[in-house]
């Protein structure tokens, strides 16, 4: 095939693909017919292959006829990422400031703001692991009427390997179509390593996300929310897309008390939440460690009250049986606190705080 033809054909093919992803059936049909036309022309010029080219041309004509169906099929792919959530703000302990800033930013994107005022297009949640960043995003999803599209970077990279940048375009096409929308990119750090050392797929995905965020003058009712445990890995180009950077810190005593209350809901206690919160703060626990400690404490109590639980020979017979319980006591939590260790060292904590002071809001 002549080089000029083949590169033109490739181009049309790509534009066809792209139109499908954008959900633009008319455009997809147009480029499918361009491909068909080009192949028919080739058939008339290269007689010895004309049979072959004609068959390809017919394939494209069939695709042109079916664009509507294909557009639907594709969008179903990313539509699966639209999340519903039954997490509410009450399930998130502490983090008053973060909740407020987040609600504000998203509220402004959804509402009609007067004049030339431009709401944020990108919001970054950063802080130590386990502090509730993903949980905050879920609470946001559960509490508002916007479309919420949740993207976990590691999933996109593994499941759609090689196609990840296409997926990103489809995600934003969908978000605009269903605006107001929040695109939540969890584990953004997986994309934010030094770009030179990144896998190609990751680099393309990141490039597409940044381009999509830039692509429109006003936000079009789409806000991108990203979360990271390693904000210092973000370079200037990425940071500039996320002008609102919200610190999600380890809980203070007040926050830890609320988190204990959430994870011990409905359980009788013979200890005060305040005393538990004091220990958690001293041990540099995040919300995740507090949740784990609660589980250990409950297990400790259940084991004591239901000795058959720790008997491998009897454990088969307890399915469906009501377990005996008693109020949780200090000894249950002593057991739990011993087993749960925070992965965060003071030094690292200082690093977060420095970064927050320099770049956060
Ligand atoms: N502020 C919080 N309030 C209540 N539970 C929390 C909080 N932070 C963390 N958790 C608990 O820890 C788990 C992990 O939190 P997650 O939001 O995934 O942390 P991150 O995304 O910041 O690493 C949550 O599912 C929840 O059970
Ligand atoms: Mg998370």
Automatic annotation (TrEMBL):
Domain of life of the native organism: Archaea
Single Gene Ontology MF annotation: ATP hydrolysis activity
Record keywords, A-Z: ATP-binding, Nucleotide-binding
Pfam families tied to this protein: AAA, Vps4_C
Keyword Nucleotide-binding among UniProt keywords: yes
Domain AAA+ ATPase: 119-252
SUPFAM superfamilies, sorted: P-loop containing nucleoside triphosphate hydrolases
Protein name, as recorded: ATPases of the AAA+ class
